[in-house]
Model the fold of this input.
Amino acid sequence: MIALMDAAISELQKPFLDDDQIRSSRAIMGLDTQLIDDGTYFVVKHDGVLAGCGGWSRRTTMYGGDQLPVRNAALLDPATDAARIRAMYTHPDFVRRGVGRLILSLCERAAKAEGFRRADLAATMAGEPLYRACGYQPAEKFVDDRGGAPVPILMMSKTL
Done:
């Protein structure tokens, strides 16, 4: 999965970010293994090849991988909080083939089955078009510079 994530960050962000921002993205993005431990992470393969991965969370952390020291594993309340869509990556060889949309729909269905009525996510500029097409609405744009260079992030939300 790490190779897929690196390829997605390196290739799919090129139209939106410069080289320093892509390096910074690698530092702030990635897999939070809490998603795997919670059983809320999905992997899609095509003919045995990893095509994409992504998940959702019932925990407070919005985004970021294991390498980030500031994560919050507190459980969200489905009655008042939004589920988190997290760590969505599609291998560049499989973009625009429905992989991201499939993973997103699996996440939304699973979160809804646990009582969540809304989902929030932190979109990269490369991911924003997919999320808009799937009904997510933009909320707040900000910059994350924890990796050294400023990386634009767009908070988005959807009613499930």
Notes: The mean pLDDT is 96. The radius of gyration is 15 Å.
